[in-house]
Amino acid sequence: MLNPAERARAQATPRRVLLRSALGEALRRLRLEQGRTLAEVSLAARISMPYLSEVERGLKEISSEVLAALCAALGIELAELLVSVAFHLSSDSGTAAVLAARQADAGRFEVAAPPTRRAGDAYALAA
């Protein structure tokens, strides 16, 4: 049981949304907008219906492979889904404006690389 000071601190702390919850909500919203059932999407993505249900409810972490399969089954691009989730996660209107500008420019992603290669340069790959 929390004492009054701990309870006040817990209530004052903003609730953080988990990525798995935001992804699940976005996937469910897309599926319902298309008027499709869990069974239809899980069959198209070749995953089990109970697993898809748990993903949509934010109870299970999702691998990049399964996420790609779900995006294909729903007929959307992964980047489109991730931008939607980023909007949901951003509570800062400045962040949302930047994301809106980037979404308007979707499809034209650039990869930044050093102008010249030098010994010891390292490159990071993002999924």
Note the main attributes of this structure.
single chain; 127 residues; 434 Repressor (Amino-terminal Domain); 7 helices; mainly alpha
Would you spell out the secondary-structure blueprint of this structure?
Layout: H1 4-12, H2 19-33, H3 38-45, H4 49-56, H5 64-74, H6 78-89, H7 93-104
Summed up, what is this model?
With 127 residues, the protein is an all-alpha fold. The chain is built from 7 helices and no strands. It has a domain of 86 residues: Orthogonal Bundle (434 Repressor (Amino-terminal Domain)).
Walkthrough of the structure:
The structure is a single chain. The protein is built from seven helices and no strands. By secondary structure, the chain is mainly α. It has a domain of 86 residues: 434 Repressor (Amino-terminal Domain) (Orthogonal Bundle), CATH 1.10.260.40. Helix 2 crosses helix 6, helix 3 packs across helix 5 and helix 6 runs antiparallel to helix 7. 11% of the residues are buried. About 6% of the residues have low confidence.
Shape assignment: globular
Spatial extent as radius of gyration: 19 Å
In the CATH classification, which architecture of one domain applies?
Orthogonal Bundle
CATH topology of one domain: 434 Repressor (Amino-terminal Domain)
Quaternary structure of the protein: single chain
Q: Strand portion, in percent? A: under 5%
